[in-house]
Design brief:
By secondary structure, this protein is α/β, with parallel strands linked by helices. The protein is built from 17 helices and 22 strands.
């Protein structure tokens, strides 16, 4: 029999999340939200929201009703229909950060615009890294019209990978073809609702605004029963209060308004309480995702989401560095550990550099090891039912630890073995192996993993149907032949 005291991190005392939710509800009642989407505004007004000064004031009862119908758990399934992510409780899953427009070129060590070939390499790489439970539409290729970007990224992720996909729309006409692709893989709307294959990010604009696009995406997801992920983005001192707690109150108000819209569209539809906040660097005008204050806001709002009984999401395990260097490891490693200890269900960020503008395959491989270490830490130290005193007495008497049955029985579950990108050699062995840096080892690992032959992700008929959907979309924008 085994047991463990699992280490957990909470930045607020137990009673504080309820106070934050209460303050957020008062913000919605007194300040309200700006909803630019006609259908969303009509839904709210029909449910009792009051128009005032161009904004909609939301009664507290609407929030309570919405929270009562939002499900506490979401399970995502891969393209084969097997469970891949169980989002709820304190279960933690990692996926690559999105949606970068650049790729870090390993030869020039400079960022460049991403292409279709880069996206395919990233999808195939993520499929081979087991500590990433899902794909994300992590790169936006530059070799197709921008109007096609949202659906084309999803198309490549489904065509070349098997894991569920974290994605989102850029245009109001993007949801329909993306929904059609997911339906095509799963077989029917009912099967897709029963075994969700994707999550759509839906981002309110701070402070307290839903654009026509993001509100429509939220409503579309609810009606199709495709999981939606609220990604509130308070920017301290710029679009939200500079103090962290008050930024979390604003995050909560924006998220609760989204939950109300979503559940009014379809009660019981799956939704995640997430975000991508940032502390604002007043010196440079930048949004440092690797700042400790950014991470603290994420951990804090996740505690609020857990108090509400909702699956949680956070943007962590990423960096503002420009290369996979010490800063990148520092910021990404701390973020991965904090996310795991906070029990955030879905953690987006690995691979990301440069304020979410750049993806690096080498960093994606290095971050995979950081995620593995964070997940191991979150498991805690287990009591395995052994008589410690008797065991130590026997080991000391025999003077043999390595070959003892206790060692052979437990070492694999106790001690994690990293990939070759983590250096644990002696200095002499490291030198003899070429004295390579972590980035050089990661590049070799990327190429090794991508050289492995991949099993077809989808049946030929499904592939053909996907291509047909994407080709029809491309032709709408004057593209006769897709790259790759």
């Amino acid at each position: 029999m085994t047991s463990a005291l699992r280490p957990r991190l909470a930045l607020f005392p137990p009673e504080e999340p309820a106070r934050i939710v209460d303050e957020a509800c008062r913000v919605l009642e007194d300040v309200g939200v700006l909803v630019e989407n006609e259908g969303g505004a009509r839904l709210l007004e029909a449910a009792g929201a009051v128009a005032h000064g161009g904004r909609l004031l939301l009664p507290g009862r609407l929030v309570r009703q919405a929270l009562a119908t939002a499900p506490p758990r979401i399970v995502l399934y891969d393209t084969h229909g097997d469970p891949a992510c169980d989002l709820g409780g304190d279960r933690v899953h990692f996926d690559p950060g999105s949606a970068a427009i650049h790729i870090l070129d390993p030869e020039s060590q400079r960022r460049r615009e991403a292409t279709t070939a880069d996206v395919i390499r990233l999808v195939r790489l993520v499929d081979r890294l087991p500590h990433y439970a899902s794909q994300s539409t992590a790169l936006l290729p530059s070799d197709i019209p921008r109007e096609l970007g949202d659906r084309y990224r999803l198309y490549l992720a489904l065509l070349h990978g098997s894991k569920p996909v974290i994605t989102g729309t850029f245009r109001t006409d993007g949801f329909a073809p993306m929904h059609a692709m997911l339906r095509c893989v799963r077989g029917s709307d009912a099967a897709l609702a029963e075994k969700p294959l994707a999550v759509f990010d839906c981002c309110p604009s701070p402070p307290l605004k839903w654009s026509d696009l993001t509100c429509q995406s939220l409503l579309d997801c609810a009606r199709a029963r495709i999981p939606a992920e609220l990604v509130s983005m308070p920017l301290t001192g710029a679009t939200a209060p500079v103090t962290l707690r008050e930024a979390i109150v604003q995050h909560c108000a924006e998220s609760l308004s989204g939950i109300v819209l979503h559940q009014l569209a379809r009660p019981g539809a799956p939704i995640l309480y997430g975000g991508a906040p940032s502390a604002f660097d007043m010196r440079h005008g930048t949004t440092p995702m690797g700042a400790i204050e950014t991470m603290m806001i994420c951990v804090g709002y996740a505690q609020v989401g857990q108090h509400l009984g909702l699956p949680t999401h956070g943007y962590l395990a990423l960096s503002d560095a420009k290369r996979p260097d010490y800063q990148a490891g520092l910021e990404s490693g701390i973020g991965a550990v904090l996310a795991a200890l906070a029990g955030i269900n879905l953690v987006s960020g690995p691979g990301i550099l440069d304020y979410i503008l750049t993806q690096s395959l080498e960093k994606l491989v290095l971050d995979h090891e950081a995620c593995a270490m964070a997940l191991r830490l979150a498991r805690g130290i287990e009591r395995r039912g052994d008589d410690a005193v008797g065991l130590i007495a026997e080991l000391v008497q025999k003077g043999e630890f390595l070959s003892h049955p206790h060692t052979r029985r437990h070492w694999r579950e106790e001690l994690s073995i990293p990939a070759a990108v983590v250096d644990r050699q002696t200095y002499g062995d490291w030198e003899a192996a070429g004295a390579r840096t972590a980035e050089e080892r990661a590049h070799a690992e990327v190429e090794r993993l991508l050289a492995r032959e991949a099993a077809p992700a989808l049946p030929p008929a499904t592939e053909a149907a996907l291509r047909e959907i994407m080709t029809a979309e491309a032709r709408r924008y004057g593209v006769e032949t897709l790259p790759g």
